[in-house]
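[Q] Does anyone have a clean structure-token version of this?
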Amino acid sequence: MAGLNVAELRAALETQLATVAGIPATTLWVKENRTPNDNDADEEEIAASDAWVEMLLGFDDGDRKEAPASQSRIWHTGTWHVWYRSPPGIGSAAADLIADAIVAAFPNGQDFTSGGTQVTIRSVGRRAGFQQKAEWVVPVKVRWEVITDNTF
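[A] Here you go.
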């Protein structure tokens, strides 16, 4: 992924996420190729009464290929998965409000920047929440794009 600064991409998305009222301070990045519930070591650090957010940054397969030397720009695209997890006893309505606020914070076509990386939001949506153990989980999916110069 020539020219893509993943740390800046993550920072741009996280900075905007932090503007959402009610977002918990505890956020975890899910390790690549793992599901949210496959991070038992990370979950042990979170108190049972806390709300928290898990995030996974996915890249479209085409971005993993080298671009031809004749292209001066490279389009990197992918999906940022955000799972809002409410603490037990809060119920689904409060979690749904937070998920709706996350969706609203990432409008289609909006640009967010960190360092030299400009991230453009291509689409955003959420699925219906569901109960998992004692928590209510609401998944949000943000499609993103970053255009970088090809270093040839």
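[Q] Thanks! Anything notable?
[A] The radius of gyration is 17 Å.
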